[in-house]
């Protein structure tokens, strides 16, 4: 699905990612864990195409194409989805309108017929139910006046509607109570399919109780120092990150 | 009173001759230069007659179920109008002929502070038509009143007086339109008096032709517990200057002033508003937004004055401006003058481009850069239009504003 090779990224002249190598196969769920400031969010933002990140070295290949050459919207059309750590509020832009524009832009790009209003509403209602999002949210402005938890759930709702091939969840679990966490996990688990991959960026292992990763990576100081199976997350929870640093230095 | 209408007109004319046009040396007019008007319309610019054929049907607001009062080039068109039976609507010209003493009242309504400036004096001297509306106490007019002024390129001086009785209600759409390809001038003064408990929803839509000059003044006088809401929309004309003066005279009066400008090319629009809290427990809200493209220029000057005894005043004012072009200009000045302690007043102004985080968010969901920009621009303007209770008016303005913004096609779904 996606292959990242020797990726170096600077922000404002400061190197944040220092040679990331990562390969995620179709159908796999990966977790990227690490302490604050290790570069986790930078990695998700670079994949989604946000401005202000300078790739100084390395490459990202997505479905065989050079991802870094694509504009953010092209990435979306090709199935890349980022669930934002801090979703922005966009008053005046209706949630449903945004999703319809997004879904149809992608369908158009892929040469499929655009959904009409009826078909689209059916899809939206079904997905809203999945993440237990009240219907009234649909007609409100994007994230306008939503609580932190509602914003995160809205991200997962959007993901469910847009049905991406590669979903990046950037700290989607932070600030969620246990009920909301379960709902978010249900949304993600429903999406799991042989042709879809999920990357969860987090620094807690509790999300991984609900969404079982195939691979866990430890990102420290801009480098992936260790990778392992789901048990690695438990170990990190117990022992922290210092031992990974020491092990890598040894 | 021994005075006659002619005497009032004569003294108004003298006042105009003495004051002349406001100039840019006057602080209140420093951004709006009126002196060019004589170059456009000639030496006797105030008397230029309009020519051309006017087709009123092209200015209909779809689905608006309203009484109609039509003025073509400043003259009441009785045949094309549909007046209510329960509320007295008389054209000024008829009033001058039939009941001159009532006209004196209308022209003298501001006798305690005569003629704010030369333009106001000129209006009193020259206004030959307009309308006089009296809503009796305890009556809410069943349909809105659509007053349509079409100017095909002359100098038109209009005077409108609206009196709303105790606990009565009126929704009024003052609509200035025209598509003339020649320069003209509309000089309009509307005075609205609200008795205790009266309500008024006032849409003031300025969609005149791009060559027109528009000068407007709205004077509102509110008694206890009355409520006045204005939605001012500025889409048309080459130059438009509107002064809004709202006096909250008695306790419990509420006022809401909303303004939206969508400007392009070299359009120039200047609004000066003044809300005076003269009694305790009054509430005022003001929200102005501008979207500026091309080399357009907007001026917003909003003043709130809280008088000495006006305790428990609750006032908030905001002005947000979106610049789509590097060459567009906004001059904004919110002002507060407070003469007592026990008040709650907030004001603020912002000037900016589109928000980068919002743009990225939309793009990450599959909208192109261009679509995302258009969507955010439209949403910015539409948020203000959402305050309009009249769906047909909102739809009409949305579409007219939409048509002015470049390349918004494909976003029709956004329209209500």
Question: Any overview of this molecule?
Answer:
The complex is a heterodimer of chains A (250) and B (416). By secondary structure, chain A is α/β, with parallel strands linked by helices. Helices cover 36% and strands 28% of the residues of chain A. Chain A has helices spanning 40-48, 72-77, 95-109, 117-130, 148-162, 178-191, 230-239, 242-249, and strands spanning 2-11, 14-24, 29-33, 54-62, 65-66, 80-83, 90-94, 141-142, 166-170, 197-202, 215-220, 223-228. In chain A, the strands form 3 sheets. In chain A, strands 6-9-10-3-11-12 form a 6-stranded mixed β-sheet, sandwiched between helices. In chain A, strands 2-1-4-5 form a 4-stranded antiparallel β-sheet, with helices on one face. A two-stranded antiparallel sheet of chain A has the order 7-8. In chain A, helix 5 packs parallel to helix 6 (178-191). The mean pLDDT of chain A is 93. Chain B is 20% helix and 39% strand. In chain B, the strands form 2 sheets. Chain B has a 10-stranded mixed β-sheet, with helices on one face. Chain B has a 9-stranded mixed β-sheet with strand order 3-4-6-8-10-12-14-16-18. The model of chain B has no long low-confidence stretch (mean pLDDT 92). Classes of the chains: A alpha/beta (250), B alpha/beta (416). The A-B interface holds A 48-51, 71-73, 75-77, 81-82, 84, 87-88, 90-94, 97-103, 105-106, 141-142, 158, 162 and B 355-358, 360-369, 371-372, 375-376, 378-380, 382-383, 386, 413-414.
Features:
heterodimer; A: 250 residues; alpha/beta; six-stranded mixed β-sheet; four-stranded antiparallel β-sheet; 36% helix; globular; B: 416 residues; nine-stranded mixed β-sheet; 19 strands
* Residues in β-strands, percent of chain B: 35-45%
Largest interface here, residues on each chain? A-B, 33 and 26 residues
Helicity of chain B, as a percent range: 10-25%
Shape of chain A: globular
Shape of chain B: globular
Strand order of the largest sheet of chain A: 6-9-10-3-11-12
* Beta-strand proportion of chain A: 25-35%
Largest sheet of chain A: 6 strands, mixed
The separation of the N and C termini of chain B measures: 53 Å
**What integer is the average pLDDT of chain A?**
93
- Spans where pLDDT lies below 50 across 5 or more residues of chain B: none
Please count the beta strands of chain A (DSSP E, at least 2 residues each).
12
User: Structural class of the secondary elements of chain B?
Assistant: alpha/beta
Total DSSP E strands of chain B: 19
Please provide the ordered H/E string of secondary-structure elements of chain A: EEEHEEHEEHHEHEHEEEHH
Mean of all residue-level pLDDT scores of chain B: 92
Rg of chain B (C-alpha, Å): 21 Å
In terms of quaternary structure, the protein is heterodimer
Number of helices of chain B: 8
Give me the number of helical elements of chain A.
8
